[in-house]
Fold:
Amino acid sequence: MTEKTKQGYYWLFLIPFIGTLIPPIYSKMDPQLFGLPYFYWYLILWIIITGIIGGIVYFLSEPKR
Structure:
């Protein structure tokens, strides 16, 4: 795999950036989940998704041994 191909995986980090870029999408109270307003659990969900994407990028861009 070439170095340019490995760098292409970093574009996946745009997904969480775009998901949190426009606050009017998630700046509301309802629906609530476990008593948390939508604003909070939406952002917490993006933290988890970003971690998963980070793991995917890491393993795809890591050199094979």
Q: What stands out?
A: The radius of gyration is 16 Å. Residues 38-61 form the longest helix (24 residues). The mean pLDDT is 85. Residues 16 and 50 are 6 Å apart (CA to CA).
